[in-house]
């Protein structure tokens, strides 16, 4: 009997922990470190209500400092585990492991991380998965290095063989490759039966070249949550309307339309003359909850209601993320879920 092939689990499947990296003065957060630390404290506090969190720290001093900040916030430190590691920045969604279930164990896919196509220095981030693996972080796991630039935020799976991505991002990373070629490679490495491409959708202030996790996410094998724009005067209106039409035309494996959950549109956030990418689609699914990025906007409550409808069996917890979008990402971008069993509970 042939063994079952590896499987890419959906984010809503049971998790052992969330992996993050603590910001410090040598990351891009230096100019606004205090504000960003408050977001990280709120994030860790939210996660530890439901499950453990693994926190990468650059050195012992940073661990001592992070522990003190979390203790002062009355975070349950029994669910916080620190991992010494070097990193250029804290976008673990893109530099962390993409984990497949493989028989009784796991396969850690270690794609190249190039700083979103060479925009930023990323040599230490590119070595993070190897470093954590060599440190014995993961259980029953084998690391598979893959010489192909791919970020975790660029792909979305339903756990049942369907992958969702944006052509803009993958084409930007691999301009000489055809869509058929990239489709074949992704389906092979990630063990997917089909790849669903979106040709529309972008956010001003996003330097990922339209990561799918800022635009559209699976909520179930038959449901998609996506960022909508209801302001005809906004520069995003036409592009996000075209994306919404594309999503409406997608079909499930059974040939049915997806159940669709459009997210509300926050008012423009302008910082030093620059529009920031405030997307509610950048939420994080954890055990028993959905953590939602909140921006201090009137649309926050509406987004929370939409996510509660899309995930009726989970608590929706708002995490203040306005400081994060200053560096062009949000809550999902700074986290990576680890499936149940890949690290010690």
Describe this protein's structure.
This protein is an alpha/beta fold and 345 residues long. The protein has one domain: 5-stranded Propeller (L-arginine/glycine Amidinotransferase, Chain A). Helix content is 27%, strand content 26%. It has helices spanning 33-48, 60-72, 92-95, 115-118, 123-126, 128-134, 167-173, 179-190, 237-249, 299-310, and strands spanning 15-21, 53-57, 80-84, 98-102, 105-112, 141-149, 156-157, 162-166, 194-198, 216-220, 223-227, 259-263, 269-271, 274-276, 284-286, 289-294, 315-320, 336-339. The strands form six sheets. The chain has a four-stranded mixed sheet. A three-stranded mixed sheet has the order 4-5-6, covered by helices on one side. It starts with 14 loop residues before the first strand and ends in a 6-residue tail after the last strand. The mean pLDDT is 96.
């Amino acid at each position: 009997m042939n063994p079952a092939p590896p499987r890419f689990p959906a984010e809503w499947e049971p998790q052992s922990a969330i992996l993050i990296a603590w910001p410090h003065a040598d990351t891009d957060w230096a100019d606004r470190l205090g504000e960003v630390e408050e977001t990280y404290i709120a994030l860790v506090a939210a996660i530890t209500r439901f499950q453990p969190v693994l926190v990468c720290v650059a050195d012992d001093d940073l661990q001592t400092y992070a522990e003190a900040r979390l203790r002062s916030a009355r975070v349950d430190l029994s669910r916080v585990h620190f991992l010494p590691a070097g990193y250029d920045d804290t976008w673990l969604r893109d530099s962390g492991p993409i984990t497949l279930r493989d028989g009784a164990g796991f396969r850690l896919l270690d794609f190249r991380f190039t700083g979103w196509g060479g925009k930023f220095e990323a040599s230490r981030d590119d070595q993070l998965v190897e470093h954590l693996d060599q440190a014995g972080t993961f259980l029953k796991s084998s690391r598979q290095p893959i010489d192909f630039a791919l970020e975790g935020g660029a792909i979305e799976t339903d756990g049942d063989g369907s992958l969702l991505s944006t052509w803009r991002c993958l084409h930007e990373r691999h301009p000489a490759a055809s869509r058929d070629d990239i489709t074949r490679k992704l389906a092979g490495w990630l063990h997917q039966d089909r790849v669903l491409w979106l040709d529309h959708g972008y956010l001003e202030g996003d330097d990922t070249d339209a990561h799918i996790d800022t635009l559209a996410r699976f909520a179930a094998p038959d449901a998609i949550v996506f960022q909508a724009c209801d302001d005809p005067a906004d520069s995003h209106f036409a592009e996000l309307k075209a994306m919404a039409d594309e999503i409406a035309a997608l079909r499930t494996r059974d040939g049915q339309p997806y159940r669709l959950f459009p997210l509300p549109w926050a008012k423009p956030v302008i910082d030093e003359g620059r529009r920031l990418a405030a997307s509610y689609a950048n939420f994080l699914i954890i055990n028993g909850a959905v953590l939602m990025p909140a921006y201090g906007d009137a649309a926050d409550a509406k987004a929370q209601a939409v996510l509660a409808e899309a995930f009726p069996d989970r608590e929706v917890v708002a995490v203040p993320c306005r400081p994060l979008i200053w560096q062009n990402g949000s809550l999902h971008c700074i986290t990576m879920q680890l499936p149940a069993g890949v690290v010690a509970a």
